Structure formats: structure tokens, C-alpha cells
Amino acid sequence: MKKQQFDAIIIGSGQAGTPLAFKFAEEGKNVAFIEKDKFGGTCVNNGCTPTKAYVASAKRINDIKTASELGIEISETVPVDLEKIKERKDKLVNESVEGIKRGVEENEKITFFHGEAKFIGYKTVEVNKETLSAEKIFINVGGRPHVPEAFEKNDYLTNESILELKEIPDHLIIAGGSYLGLEFGQMFRRFGSKVSIIEKNSRIIHWEDKKVSEEIQEIMEDEGVSFYLNAECVSSEKNREEEITLHFKQNGEKKQVKGSHLLLALGRIPNSDLLQVDNSNIKTDDKNFIGVNDFLETSVEGIYALGDCNGQGAFTHTSYNDYEILVNNLFGDKSRKVSDRIKTYGLFIDPPLGRVGLTAHEAEESGYDFKVVEYPMSKVARAKERGNIKGFMQAIIDNDTNKILGACVLGIGGDEIINGFTNIMYADVAYTVIRDGVFPHPTVSELIPTMLEKV
Question: DSSP string spanning 413-451?
């Protein structure tokens, strides 16, 4: 079969691949755009968009349930219709998917291939038995849920399949106490499920500082979520009554918990193994992440890896930043690189956690001389007025430079407030710039200068 030649081949329509396809088309280049599933990748289909829609529903339910604390009495129990919650989620997802689809179909420079791609030679890709070649190839294949071998033949849910449920689980068991496990745990507890979370480490989200982990656990325990720590999942089984038993070892002792549904939230693995990248001499590490340099180029000149599959970040915002770095280096002044990126992320429980830069533990391990300043949400007037005083703010200040090494905001608005610290860190200026700023009252952010006065 004749080989089709393109200026660029883009494999995957996630948060880096999709804008890159349109950018190449805008530059007058002919693009082969390959997607094996739906347009938009994880974020649009079973990541940010759908989960945050569910988080919003769960928060609204909790607002109603706790309305009496703010003097509003609701006499009737509020029923939760998971099918309607799902319908709203599906509508949001479909709007985004259809938007991308229309844009691709209307662009004469983009040739779309719906199928699974694999490398069959040097800069040569096969999809649907068609052979494609290009001098520049971009891999944006994302990742998938990690399912241990012991669970592969059993009945379980992932972050994808749990979003297709139409009935609320009676008892949701969650294996994994990280982002996915905590967000789904709180939302389904608020929907009405009994929730048990099993975590192999001594703390949930164990890479965070101890105080953050413990505070988040307390927030969720106050809502009725149960935790089993130092607990390694071993296997699961379902009996004739459709009851699931999860077997685990806690501190060396064999234990079990029974429930109606099991969610595996044990991390994600890159999809690079599905591409047969060895056929193009592309190097991967021991976890199958595709190795890239500071400009996202793989071990093969002209082939790049973007997003979750390159191990340089597992977030939508890092994937999109990969796109920005590539565009700058392909069409701009070549001034941007991966190592300029400051780590930042959010945990979207309620109240949320916003994090940027180093934790105190990381700063200590890196040998910095630093101070840590904190301010409890219980002393923030705006948090009191809004009826949510859980959490705290924290900043880590370098004693040598007076610059912010890292910060976190666990509390009401934390996922948005953290951006104030992020801006100061990218500006590469002293903490005093934000300390001496004037913030509007009454807000949560106005207490940042107050906290920084403690330095």
C-alpha cells in the first residue's frame, strides 16, 4: 500500500495534540491527526470536565444538607438523582467533543484518522492498515488506569466506568488515597454512599506535608468517609449476592472490607506501550514513559512526546504547556523549555487544596534555608461568613533570597487563590511584593499579606 506523506503526524487529541493540529494547519502544513477514541482526551471525556461536574453536584447537595448552619431550614430530604447528574455531565462532555470534531472536519489541512496508531518503522506509522510518514511526529497518547494483575479478572470500576453509573453505590470501596480516590470518595459520600478508602502508605496523598494530609483526612472523616492506612490491597471477589470483598494487608495483618462497588484509584500508566515505539527507536524508561529533553523531543530527532506519556507532568495544564513550549520552539523564538515550569496543581475536594512549588519537606531535602508561615482559615472573616473555616494557608520562604519556594492553600477558594502565589513565583520577585499589596475586603486572599507579615 502506498505511503501517505504529511508535514506532521499527531497521535492523540488530548490537551496538547488538538491545539497543535490546528496550529500546524494555521501555518499551512498538512497534518495527519489520529485518535482511537473520542476527541479531547482524558480531560474532556473522563477527567477534569466530567469529574468537576460531579464535584459541583456534590457540593450543591452538601450546601443544601448544611443550610441550617446558615439559618436556612429545609424540611424535606433532598433526593439525589445520579442519572440526571450523569446526563448533565454527558452534555458538557459532548459539547466539547463535538466542538473539536467540527473544527477538524472543517479544516482542509487536517486529515483525520479514527483508529489506533502504531510505529512500523523510522518515522512511519500505521493506522487502519494505512501507512503514514512525516518528518515531524507528535505523540500525545495520554495514559490509562493502572489495574494490578490480581484484579484484572474481577469486577471493578475505574475513573472512566464509575462516571457511567446510573445508580448510587450502597457502599463504595476505593483502593487508593490520592487525587482520584479522594475526589470520588467525597462526592459519592455526599451523594449518599458509604465510602471506605484503602491506602497503602501511612498517609493519604503522602507526598504532601504531614499536616496537609492529616487535615484533608479529618475533613473527609467529618463527612463520614472511613480510611484504612498502611493497607496494601491484595485481591477482591464478588459473591452470589453481588457483594464485593476487598482483601488487604494492614500492618502485616490480613483484613477485608465488604461493599457493593470497588473503585480502583491506584494511579495511571502511559499508553506508549500500545504504539510499538521500539520500531522507531524511541526510548522509554522502566515505567514506559517516553524520554524527552527540555524541548519535548524524544531520542529520535523530529519525534516529540507531549502530555501524560512523557512523565513530565500528569495534569491538563502541564499538557497544554507542553503544546505552548513546542509551538514556541517550532514557530517562535525558542525561549521556552520544560525546566522553566513550576509545579502546581489542585485537589478538588471541598474545600479544595491549591499547591505550587515545593512542600516544606521537599525544601528541606533540597537543602534550602527557609521559613514556613501559616494562617488558619478559622481566623479568616470571609471563610467564617461563608460557613467553611476548615484548612489553612501556608507559604515557604527562602531566607537567602526572600523568594517564595512554595505555597499551599487548603480551604475555601484554595484552588483559585493559589494562583496569586504562582504569579509571584513566575515573576521571580521577593515575597514582600505580595506582602505589601492591598487586597479587596472582605476576601480570603486579603489574609495572605497578613500571613506574610509573620516572616
Answer: THHHHHHHHHHHHHHT-BTHHHHT----SS-STTHHHHH
Residues whose CB falls within 8 Å of the CB of residue 145, separated by 6 or more in sequence, listed in order:
158, 159, 160, 264, 266, 267, 268, 269
Return the amino acid letter for 385: E
Q: How many CB atoms lie within 10 A of CB 430?
A: 16
pLDDT tens for residues 346-397? 999 999 999 999 999 999 999 999 999 999 999 999 999 999 999 999 999 9
| Contact assessment for residue 355 and residue 213, using Cβ atoms and an 8 Å cutoff | no
Residue 34's DSSP bridge partners are 11, 113
All three cell numbers of 429 = 520577585
Which of 47, 32, 229 lies closest to 124, judged by CA? 32
Q: If you write DSSP's letter for every residue of 182-226 in order, what string do you get?
A: HHHHHHHHHHT-EEEEE-SSSSTTTTS-HHHHHHHHHHHHHTT-E
The x, y and z cell numbers of residue 4, run together, are 501517505
The cell numbers describing 161, all together, are 466506568
Spatial contact of 433 and 442, defined as CB atoms under 8 Å apart: no
At 159, which amino acid appears? N
Contact in structure between 382 and 409 (CB atoms under 8 Å): no
Give the three cell numbers for residue 228: 484504612
Quick one: what percent of the chain has pLDDT higher than 90? 95
Q: Report phi then psi at 248, rounded to 5.
A: -150, 165
Cα maximum dimension of the chain: 73
CB atoms within 10 A of CB 100: 20
